[in-house]
Batch of 2 targets.
Target 1
Amino acid sequence: MNPVDSKKQKPATLKKQRPFMKYILASCAVLLGSFLFFQYGSTSDIFLSHTPETLENESLTEAICSEISMEDPEFNTASFNEKPEPIEEIHTGTVKAGDTVSRILSPWLSPSLIHELGKSSSPVFDLRRLRTGRDYKVITLDGEFAGFEYSINRSQFLSVELDKEGFHAEVNTLSFDLETATINGIIETSLSEAMQTAEDITLAVRLNNLFGWEIDFARDLRKGDSFSVLVERRYHNDTFQGYGNILAAEIINRGHRYDAFRFENEDGSADFYNSQGQNIQRFFLKNPVPFSRITSGFTHRRWHPILKDYRPHYGVDYAAPTGTPIYAAGSGTILQVGQNAGAGRYVRIRHGNGYETAYLHMSRFERGMRPGRKVNQGDVIGYVGQSGLATGPHVCFRMTKDGVPVDPTKIDSPRAGELPEERRKEFAALVASLQPQLGIQYAELEKTEKKNSKAEKKSM
């Protein structure tokens, strides 16, 4: 045989031997495995790594875990994947002189975002009208701006929130706890001073407006006069937030009693009637400026302090500090909002029955005053000043009837609608329940009224 051919046959022999060796090794492994299983597996748990001790521990663990509710958040695996709640911080402050919304919000927002916030707020509240002394809050989440709140007044606040869609603004009304209180006092110099001693000055303004049809507070009050008012005091989070409805009130002026009781109409509105059932509201207020004093009356001949000659003065001058609100004496339509050299800044209003009123020498007009606008009695139309020919801050209040000047202090304007006859018993019951709460000694007042009445008869 050729040596070369024998070399070529050797690999074929090795290939035949390798499968046979595999079968031998596999058989040995099966035999060894069978031996171990029958030797240990049938009598022990070693083969599966279980001993009697481990079995006992597993049974105990199973029993404990079966008593644990998998709804418990401590054992809820999903809770481990949740992000932590953001940290909320509230930054409070008070608007100071010169403050703007840009200055207040600049630590948290860029100028462009502040502009967007202002645009979103403008349909409900103009943020350019921030007032000194009003409170505000800036809310942040993890240091990022989330919201802004501004106290518009004692009953409303602006709320602006920021989310993925942008800024959202709305005006909300505070919820109040109401407490009924009786407040009374003796007048030494003025109603405002007496009220400041007993309570908030705003209540004096409310009382002035309530009795403004009956009493001229600039001329009629005397030392020793008294007042009593039953009013709702409003609280929010135990903080006093001003007054709600006046329920009843009474003023003793020169021995004469003027009273008013709030009575709700069937449509839900309310009017004030005196104890005789007469509506206390009249066509005109006696005085368009509360807590003022008359410095010059209606006359056909008066020495003009600036022009230095005698001429008619067809009005009544009420002196008051610059900026004091001026109220519309009656409901009507604005005819003019203008300015000239003599009258300064003035407003003219047309009322019913041929009456017109004018208010001269204002420092500024109330926002929104324009010809054709309707105003209600008691609306603020401007503020006291000394524009035009004036030697000091005051308002010259003028009135005409069918184009003829009349003295506004001598107008006996008619009352508003009377109390419906069918509701008089209901009103009488209301008066009987509220009068004792005013704290006035009626027996003593009746004696005083009788004495005054007798004195008037003797003098006649």
Target 2
Amino acid sequence: MLTGLVLALSVLGSLIGAADARKMMSKSELHARQVEAAKRFERTPRAVAKNHNITFKNPKASQFYVDGKSIPEVDFDVGPSWSGLMPISADPNETRKLFFWFFPPGPEGSLDDLIFWTNGGPGCSSLEGFLQENGPFQWGVGTAKPIPNVNSWTNLSSVLWVEQPVGTGFSQGEPNIKDDDDLAAQVVGFMNQFLEVFAELQGKKLYLSGESYAGQFIPYIANYIYENPTALNLSLQGIWISDPVLGWVVTQSEIPAVDFVHKYENVFAFNQSFMAELDAIAVQCNYAGYYEKFATYPPAGPLPLPGNSTGADPGCDVWDTVFAAALEKNPAFNIYRIFDTFPVLWDVLGFPGSFADVQLSPLYFDRTDVKEAIHAPVNVSWTECANINVFPNDDASLPSSFSVLPKVIEKSARTVIVHGLADFILIAEGTRMITILHMLTQKTGGGLQGFQTPIANDSLIVDGVGSLGTAHTERGLTFVEVELSGHMVPQFSPLAAFQSMSFLMGFRATP
């Protein structure tokens, strides 16, 4: 009996040993696969330190010079740049000034072009876009220190990041604008003062770009430049706006909210009874089936309001209902990118997210050494988004899609609208519907409204990646949707953003 037991244990031990060996072999194979997979994504970084050598003759330029080897926490040379405060007019008593940071093109960039970038808000700093989206170095969420940005837009051309309007970031003065026409006049005034100092940039081809509320800013600035052709010695070619504010809240957030939850049911993880409540609200508020009925190619006419409000009728604010429930399920839920869960990665800027999350104080741009390095006022407490209303009595302008955007599309060589499909604060399907609407007054194509042919699935092909969403072009407008990307497309899908910007500038044939 004992002999049999020993034999049985021996056999069992052999089997267990074999199983363990198979497990170890499996782990070894897995590691080999991981190593091999990593090799596929190794890229030779684009150079960031050897920018084109631009010299500026105006002695005033030297006071804005930033040594690329002396930027705090950046342990590599980012090359020369210029930053500081610039007044919005030539009036010697002018107190309103905008803060800028200008970089010349990297070795692959064009000397004939200039990209203007602004963030949204209104009142949110363009230094967020600089540091975490499309600048020559980046300090992304969860990253221990700044790193070179291989997808920097300086690899396309010179880039000018501007904190505007007055009251945003380091920009100084008392906000006094009533609408986006006022804002555009101030930006153009600033640009003229900038070109006075950096005169070698005059006559360049200009591309206006930005995200979020810049969907309001950028079309109005572009329209101002087109309607005042002698106001600025730059040749405006087109605009690029990402996840933009284009129309009414009801269209961009409320109508598509429940459909968005259904699309990402496993992410929201709501139970069936709550889903039934959301569906009932959608029916009651005329949101249900709205997209299928009106998002047609070609469109049947202007989009009607589903109720009486451009925001939401009483009982119909389903977006906030979803947001509150999402935070209960996932306290780390991020309206800017719905896939986020715990742990919440630290952010050197403390925002954006569903809520501010300052894990290290002071914030990077509020450090005295950083302010001194970039010629920012040390007595200003920098926050990513302004604590004051930069439109003292709110923005009186109509949404750009109902006013200036069609004219800007008409006059531009190209216009690109990009939208991340994982963005909840502004939902892509809402932007699709407005994209159909906002071309209503275009003369090109016989005054046709919107896209005449459907947007094809898998039509956005990103180099080295493959299909990553959709892309569609008609009559000067290109609309791009990016899978996996949240609100800040240059941050969440930098290759797609870089490629679509390159398309806007005519450096490639497809977005």
